[in-house]
Design goal:
Pectate Lyase C-like, 2 domains, four-stranded mixed beta sheet, 1 helix, 2% helix
Length: 330
């Protein structure tokens, strides 16, 4: 293993390294490269924007397993190092300004955009935190622990998978494209929105301040969704979900409800279409139509527990055995 040493560059820049060869490719641009096979986790602290992506040649047969850290920014102090264990790559970028904050946070565009750009093949844990307006862009990560936190910056994810996922922004929005898979905590404290194409995990918790929550498809064992002032909009739901909005509206697309075979229900349903399971019989049924919706009341198994449900699309009601409920939870 190459001994740890420090290199002094012009403009007061310092780079600590334990493996790989740092080089200056252009003025105001810094590149660090190392062996990705010797690293298992990524730790980033910066006031700039951060993008983490697999290399373009990841699936090529002759691709090298190399991690690259590329910084496009002037007048900064840089620290890139590996921990003594040789397992974690630490990237710290601080400005030379008295307030210690960065300014330009454009991430995810052409290669000359300011920010920290990281290419890393393979599976690895991610722990990224930015200050000020620094945004974070993460694509195609499959790992155990994924943690991304920002202050004013946005969080943008494309197809990430982890056992435990934490996404938190003080005032920025959180956007998940394709899928976020894993037990997840997703939180925006102020005006930031939460928008996810597909959210899947055993335990899910999503909360927003005055921003809206929008999830196209939700698959879970249990989920808690809340918004203090924003709207909550859901597409299809599969699992046990608790929804609370203190000041906004709640709208739901397709909903599937399973209940124990012997449970009696007093139902009051509203949806565009009701899909009853073949083993579900609705007694004392009353159906009315209004504003393009069907409004159904009735009893199942003689009545008992109250069930009030409203869906923007299809509402499916079916019996579910104890064994089937265990399968759904997993």
């Amino acid at each position: 293993m190459v001994p740890l040493r420090a290199l002094a560059l012009r403009a007061g820049v310092r780079i600590h390294r334990q493996l790989g060869s740092p080089r200056v490719s252009q003025p105001r641009r810094f590149v660090w490269e190392g062996d990705a096979n010797r690293l298992r986790a990524l730790y980033v602290r910066t006031a700039l924007g951060v993008s983490v992506r697999p290399p373009p040649d990841l699936h090529s047969s002759d691709a090298k397993h190399t991690v690259r850290v590329r910084l496009v920014r002037s007048a900064l102090r840089h620290v890139v190092e590996t921990c003594p264990q040789g397992l974690r790559l630490c990237v710290r970028m601080d400005s030379d300004g008295a307030d210690g904050s960065g300014t330009c946070t454009s991430v995810g565009g052409p290669s000359d955009k300011s920010g920290v750009h990281i290419n890393w093949p393979g599976k690895f844990d991610v722990d990224i935190a930015t200050t000020g307006p620094g945004s974070v862009d993460v694509e195609e990560v499959d790992s155990h622990d994924i943690r991304v936190q920002t202050q004013e910056g946005q969080i943008h994810l494309v197809h990430v998978k982890g056992a435990e996922i934490l996404l938190r922004s003080s005032s920025g929005s959180i956007r998940g494209e394709k899928a976020i898979i894993g037990s997840s905590t997703i939180q925006t404290d102020h005006q930031g929105d939460v928008e996810v194409d597909k959210l899947q995990g055993e335990r899910l918790q999503v909360a927003s301040g005055s921003g809206r929550v929008s999830i196209r498809s939700l698959y879970c064992g249990t989920a808690n969704l809340s918004a203090r002032a924003g709207d909550i909009r859901l597409g299809s739901i599969h699992g046990s979900v608790s929804i609370r909005s203190e000041g906004g509206n709640v709208s739901i697309g397709d909903v599937t409800i399973g209940f124990p075979e012997s449970l009696g229900l007093d139902v009051r349903l509203s949806m565009s279409h009701l899909d009853l399971g073949v083993d579900v019989s609705l007694q004392d049924q009353s159906i009315t139509s209004k504003d393009g919706k069907q409004h159904v009341t009735g009893r199942v198994n003689g009545g008992g527990v109250g069930l009030w449900a409203k869906a923007g699309g299809i509402l499916r009601l079916h019996k579910q055995s104890w064994f089937q409920s265990l399968s759904t939870q997993h």
